[in-house]
Amino acid sequence: MAETKPLVGVVMGSASDLEQVQACLDALKELEVPYEVTVASAHRTPDRASEYAKTAAKRGLKVIIAAAGWAAHLPGVLAAYTTLPIIGLPLGGSPLGGKDALYAMVQMPPGIPVATVGINTGRNAGILAAQILAVSDEALSERLVGMRQKMAAKVIAAAEKLGAGE
Ligand code: RP5
Question: How far does residue 90's CA lie from ligand 1's centre (Å)?
Fold first, then answer.
């Protein structure tokens, strides 16, 4: 990996979120996107969360992924303190199964967007962050194309195994 300075900041509302966030970290690693991962809670450590967002751009981050469950205000709070793109990753695990987190993230008031992926879709959060960076990174763009080609090959192989016509 040529670039080692983190370009993506992955913030979790709690250390207990790590298991569900692992797919996101795996996707970033697979695409050779340098990232950092930390914990900051919008409710339990609001100062830490705001400080993280306020200093993110100066520290070289280009995209932030914020993962949280329950009434998940973390991505919205981070978005309030930076103009870097924020990807919200809503996590399941609450009595409402993550719909609470999804609604809190996706339904942001006009002017402060959070690009929200599906509940527990950490892999998509990582890939979306990579796609944002790939706008100005040709090599990364090619790795993304390669990832899609592998996905397509798996579908074709599965279809052939089933003996489907056409
Ligand atoms: C959220 O509350 C976190 O993102 C986590 O998903 C949930 C529960 O946190 P813990 O009580 O396990 O620390 O803020």
Answer: 11
Question: Which structure tokens are listed for 47?
Answer: 């100062």
In this structure, the residue with its CA closest to atom 5 of ligand 1 is: 69
Instruction: Locate 151 and state its tokens.
Output: 């996905």
Residues β-bridged to residue 88: 66, 116
CA-nearest residue for atom 3, ligand 1, is 13
Q: If you compute the radius of gyration of the chain from its CA atoms, what whole number of angstroms results?
A: 17
Per-residue confidence in pLDDT tens, the chain, 166 aa: 455 899 999 999 999 999 999 999 999 999 999 999 999 999 999 999 999 999 999 999 999 999 999 999 999 999 999 999 999 999 999 999 999 999 999 999 999 999 999 999 999 999 999 999 999 999 999 999 999 999 999 999 999 999 965 5
Tokens of 42: 């919008």
By residue count, the chain amounts to: 166
Give the angle subtended at the CA of 118 by the CAs of 28 and 45, to the nearest 5°.
Answer: 75
Give the pairing of strands 35-39 and 8-12: parallel
